[in-house]
Every structure is written in structure tokens, then in C-alpha cells.
Amino acid sequence: MKMSLTTAPDSGIPIFEYSIRKRIIAWVLLAPVVNGFYALAVVIEPSNLRADLILLILGLIPEYQLVLYWARRVRTARFYQDHAEFHGRKTNRTIQYSEIQEIKHRGGELRSPLIAIFLKAEPDPIAFSGNPLSRDGKARLADWLQDKIRDSA
Q1: pLDDT digits (tens, 9 = 90+) for 112-136
Q2: Is the separation of the CB atoms in 126 and 73 below 8 Å?
């Protein structure tokens, strides 16, 4: 399926944008709610060890997600018509689509999509969770990237 998304090359407006900021904020806001339920359950029924263990595991999910997102190498990514920019932890680079060897798209942690971009010159992929929609809402990033690397080959 051929995607025809265009922006003016001089406009500086990305076709796709990815950021973990919203995900981190959501988990930060959810953590006190989940941990509050855990604390309330322990106060109401302090001697039920099995329930406490289950609630503790559920209560640690927000913290686990925060650690996963914080450890990601790519924090923001912007995809333009002719190049892509990646920023994050020890990452600040711009790539041309002709540098991409392969795109892998699969389910990630807790069924969240994961996109891995393998470059021709590097063994480690640039990976991030999510498959954002384009600005006009007509295409997903993974499909658009597949078309881009097929066109640049």
C-alpha cells in the first residue's frame, strides 16, 4: 500500500512525531493511585498475605513502566519527508532514509508496538515503543517507513 504524505521540504514540520513524555506523565500520575489502593488494602485487611503479594506486584507496574521508558535510548523522534531526527539519552542524530537497512515492527512490552530501525552502518537498532499516526491521521509510522526504504533502495 503506497502512502502519499507530503510536506513542503522547507516547512520544518515533521510528518510523524514520537515522544515518551506523555507516557511517562501518565505513569507518574497513575503510580500514586495504584499505590494508594495497595496501602488502603493493607490497612483494611493486613493479614491476607496472598492478596498483599498480588497487590504489591500490581502496585509495582507503574514503577516498572517508568524505568523501562526512562532507560530508552530514544526519547523523541521526528520523521520528515527526507530525513529523521532522534534525540534522547546519549542520542542526538539525524539520518537519511537511504541509511536504513531494515524496519522491524512487533508488539513490545505489555502489547505496546515496538519499532526497530536497523541502520546499514550500525549493529544496534534505534528502537522505540509506539507506532504513531501521521499528522493528517492517514498512515502509521511503520508502514510509511517501509514504503520510504523501499523507495530509497
Answers
A1: 778 889 999 888 888 888 888 888 8
A2: yes
CATH hierarchy code of domain 73-152: 2.30.29.30
Mean pLDDT score across all residues of the chain: 80
**Higher-scoring residue by pLDDT: 51, 114:** 114
Residues 6 or more apart whose Cβ sits within 8 Å of residue 62: 27, 28, 30, 31, 34, 35
What kind and span of H or E run contains 129? strand 126-129
d(CA 68, CA 127): 12
In sequence order, what are the beta bridge partners of 21? Answer: none
CA 62 to CA 84: how far, in whole Å? 30
| Model pTM score | 0.72
Q: What is the b/e burial string over 35-69, where b = at least 16 CB atoms within 10 angstroms of the residue's CB?
A: beebeebeeeeeeeeeebeebeeebeebeebbebb
Q: Which residue has the cell 523522534?
A: 77
Is residue 72 a contact partner of residue 89, using CB atoms and an 8 Å limit? Answer: yes
pLDDT of residue 106: 80
